Amino acid sequence: AGLLWKHVEYRNSHNESRRARELIISSIATVVNYEYLFYWRLKQDGTIDFEIKLSGELSTNLLSAEEEKTGKSTHGTIVAPGVNAQIHQHMFCARLDMAVDGDINTVSEVDVVAAGDHNNPYGNAFGPVETALVTESGASRTHDATKARAWKISNAEGKTNPASDKPVAYKLIPFSKGGSHPTLLTSPESAVSKKGAFANYHLFVTPHSDTERFPAGEYTPQGNGSNGLPDWMAANRSIESKDVVLWHSFGVTHMPRVEDFPVMPCESTGFMLKPDGFFAGNPAIDLPPDNNKASKLAHSPSEKSCCDTTK
Fold first, then answer.
1. Are 200 and 183 spatial neighbours (Cβ–Cβ below 8 Å)?
2. How far is residue 65's CA from residue 208's CA, in Å, rounded to a whole number?
3. Minimal CA–CA distance to 136: which of 214, 233, 210, 217?
4. Are 279 and 46 contacting, i.e. CB atoms less than 8 angstroms apart?
């Protein structure tokens, strides 16, 4: 699975590297014209990576008579003569029932911002600002790439890291695959927005409940959007030092390309759960070296080079 870690000591050219291995749990769902490919990757550094790949066929329609005249599509991309592919969004929501070294956790938002003038005489200092999310209403959050925004889930039972003396934690890093995408773009009055209120923010946090399972309600196609996240959050319950569930909404805003027709190459989106003070150091530091006998140095004085062009 590629390189896990590497370092070359510049003073004596000593080189150490370790190859990565991953446990991948995957599934594929065909939903009418689209394929959704789901990949959970459990990594040796403690990272849990989730990726969704989107493929399949675009949803297309014939051009209207007016569009045929102008040669322009009103709400899409012309991907073949007379064929329009609509602009659309794919919105997902991951229910993350967290338990960071115990059931009682606290969620905080971490932004990286420029430091103020105090103790910053050269203006080149910046660092994290962490804000605890204490109620459901205050935990409806959107991603901000300009601040490298992430959300930290910390143990609230007194378990701390031996090096930092801070609570052990994992952090949720949004849009670790593909580009960053907006929340739901449909009109608030539309049926899509009423049923898809979970997609109006990138994050919600609620207290754990076994009966709260589906953010758009139990029966989404036949439902009216009730019995989902908006109803659960109406009580504005406390979420500080609780058994919490994170609802991470993300997706792909798809502007079809001609190259997506007739079957589109994979588009990706996803997120990572990354240890942040959970371990006492790099948990993969003690992996044994793995010498690949098929690998050769490009210029080796002691053995025939893989790139030797001499005859």
1. yes
2. 53
3. 233
4. yes
